[in-house]
């Protein structure tokens, strides 16, 4: 039952970047009760670098997180002028590489260690709202009360007015949601339950800066983010952790394996030799970057087919649970933050009450599904471009233009504009509902 001092209760299933951003954002609304349920025994992220674009940085600034995150990134807190950001693209799968494109993006961009980023969010959580070791087994709707009942694998249960599934690419919430939809007469939606293998395998490694020094000079990734490109392979690298670590990420694609089942663990640890062998014969600059690697995490990159909806009544998806994407534009974490910010803006609006929650979530769905799906598809296409298996191939005149336009979304339809659109639609929908109710009352 909802506490009288709260207008409704929000349960967030999943304590990653998206879920915790939503929790932090909603804590600014004292009349909304927020509880976070995390399957793991602690709030932690795996992985290495995370890229935050300017549109997302504005959200983090609004939430009061910018000063701490600046210190984590090694950027002066009182800095007024933000540098442009971009990658230098090199053809590197040969003994003598060459630069074929310098992408300059006029946006603020920050690079973080993923665990450091999450820790900043954890520190902002109020006490007693995070519940660990709570792996969701299923949920159900109580049609009479409107409540949602949660059942966890440990035998415990909880209730809420809204359930937000931010539980990652293998989301239990999405599984329940789409199995329910399939059972209700749409079996074609079962393809959205499980992620698809994209054909890409990636090697992720963090290399200390002292191991990336040659002739008394540090590797240029610490002052220029780099994209080393080859046929069906590429390496992206840049400095993180205040310049103390080099984030080295090597990709290998087998296009015919796209949309198949991956045979093996999604994440495994491998030794240096496998990474070095994968990029044998590449230019010396790239060899200087991968030779110091001692071990790496090998990931089979999975993603979702674009979902037609994130909703099942008062249950909604967010972040990777909604739009897990390939990492080729560094957009996954940022899109999770944007989901959270837009949803918090809708739920926190004074017009949103327990009676209008369904319409509020529909507003979120109408705005975020097309935008996030656009980024999801664009990220996949970007990876193809970096490895010369898109329609531009190895055409060095056409390819830079195509790559540049892949980033157009960064300056379009800002999260603030999305909130305004959602609230405008929601108010119109609420007015239509009240008008319809009035007509029905008159007829009765």
Q: How is this fold's topology laid out?
A:
Elements: E1 8-13, H1 17-26, E2 32-38, E3 49-53, H2 54-62, H3 66-73, E4 88-91, E5 98-102, E6 109-113, H4 114-124, E7 130-132, E8 136-141, E9 148-152, E10 157-160, E11 162-165, H5 172-183, E12 196-208, E13 213-214, E14 217-218, E15 226-230, E16 233-240, E17 245-253, E18 267-271, H6 272-278, H7 284-290, E19 295-303, E20 311-312, E21 315-317, H8 320-323, H9 332-347, H10 357-386, H11 398-405, H12 415-443
Parallel strand pairs: 1-2, 1-11, 2-7, 4-15, 11-21
Antiparallel strand pairs: 3-6, 4-5, 8-9, 9-10, 12-17, 12-19, 13-14, 15-16, 16-17, 18-19, 20-21
What is the number of beta strands?
21
**What average pLDDT do the residues reach?**
91
What portion of residues belong to β-strands?
25-35%
Distance between the termini: 31 Å
What percent of the residues sit in helical stretches (DSSP H or I)?
25-40%
Largest sheet: 8 strands, mixed
Strand order of the largest sheet: 5-4-15-16-17-12-19-18
Are there runs of 5+ residues with pLDDT below 50, and where?
Answer: 76-81
Class from helix and strand fractions? alpha+beta
Brief rundown of the structure:
The protein is α+β, with helices and mostly antiparallel strands and 444 residues long. The chain has helices at 17-26, 54-62, 66-73, 114-124, 172-183, 272-278, 284-290, 320-323, 332-347, 357-386, 398-405, 415-443; strands spanning 8-13, 32-38, 49-53, 88-91, 98-102, 109-113, 130-132, 136-141, 148-152, 157-160, 162-165, 196-208, 213-214, 217-218, 226-230, 233-240, 245-253, 267-271, 295-303, 311-312, 315-317.
